[in-house]
Design brief:
InterPro entries: Zf-like
Shape: globular
Helix content: 10-25%
Number of domains: 1
Strand order of the largest sheet: 1-2
Low-confidence stretches: none
Protein name: Metal-binding protein
Order of helices and strands: EEH
Structural class: alpha+beta
Mean pLDDT: 92
Largest sheet: 2 strands, antiparallel
Radius of gyration: 14 Å
Strand content: 5-15%
Length: 86
C-alpha cells in the first residue's frame, strides 16, 4: 500500500528548507505550518518562548521522518481545544 500522502516536498519554495537539517532529501513540507502550535508546551517539539510568543524556529519535528504519525497521534488534543467554547 502506498503511503505517499505522508510526505511532500516543495523545493521551489523560496524558504526550502525552512530549518537547518542534515539530510535535505528527507525534509517533509507536508506540515509547513505545524498544526500542533496551539498545544503550547504539550506539542512535543523543540520550542522556546520569545517575548511571550511560542518560537518554533529551532523545531524540525513536523519536517522529520515519522512526523505524520506523530502529528496525527496528537490531533485529538488539537480537535478538543478547537471545539472548546469560552
Amino acid at each position: 500500500m502506498s503511503e505517499n500522502y505522508k510526505f511532500f516536498q516543495n523545493k521551489k519554495c523560496e524558504y526550502f528548507p525552512c530549518h537547518k537539517i542534515e539530510n535535505e532529501k528527507d525534509f517533509n513540507c507536508l506540515f509547513c505550518y505545524c498544526p500542533l502550535y496551539m498545544l503550547k508546551d504539550k506539542c512535543g517539539g523543540n520550542f522556546k518562548y520569545t517575548n511571550g510568543f511560542k518560537n518554533c524556529s529551532d523545531c524540525t519535528l513536523p519536517h522529520e521522518k515519522g512526523s505524520y504519525e506523530y502529528i496525527m497521534s496528537k490531533m485529538k488534543m488539537v480537535s478538543k481545544i478547537g471545539s472548546e467554547r469560552d
